[in-house]
Amino acid sequence: MTILAISSQVVAGHVGNSAAQFVLQTLGHEVWAIPTVLLSHHPGHGAPAGRGTPANEIVALLDNLWTGGWMDQVTAVMTGYFTSHDQIDAAAKTISRLKHAKPGLPVLIDPILGDNGTVYVHESVPPALRDTLIPLATITTPNLFELTTLARLPWPMDDKVRIDDAALSLKTAEVLVTSAPGTTPETISTLVYAQDEDMTFETQRTPSPPNGIGDVMASSYLAMRLRGASARSAAAAASQIVSELIETANRQG
Percentage of residues in the chain with pLDDT exceeding 90? Predict the structure, then answer.
């Protein structure tokens, strides 16, 4: 498969497309990555150098791919971090055009908004994701806070019935929710809603997981689905990949 991936990029480290592209290629897919922002490193390591990509530059990149006939090769789309609603509009127009040409095109929207009660994107991004991009998705992969934000629900949220309702309110064929409560304080759950099935995958909670884990989860799930795995098998494989990476990161410090 050839995947158009629109998200953030860092020079040092592995977050955004700098994580997702590696995962997707390792699992056998071609990736065309468009950076919504290019930073020296993740902001969690201190103030980075870099800038957001102006929306008109994203439009120019996409338009040139259309003009050159490259878009004919795209068989899936994945989006992640956006800095503005203008960037989202540019992505949405290309996705709509691709879906018109290729009905059934897999589109994974990872609605990166924030975590643990904190929004870290511009205020125009959440409504643009909710109203413009999510309706184009076949797969959506929010963390629990992002899900509650999209569904306009209060935070924190630990009511499974309300989480279920929020996930179904996105009206996406497949929804994968990360960072949901586990059955004990020591565990955390990934919830998958697909093909009229509600699945839960529980793993050990890690106090300080490395940055980029959400990007790895989303890209692993997409890669497995594109290889023909069922939603259940893809989610199980992605959860295993993430767990092993966290374990390795902790072991290596």
Answer: 89
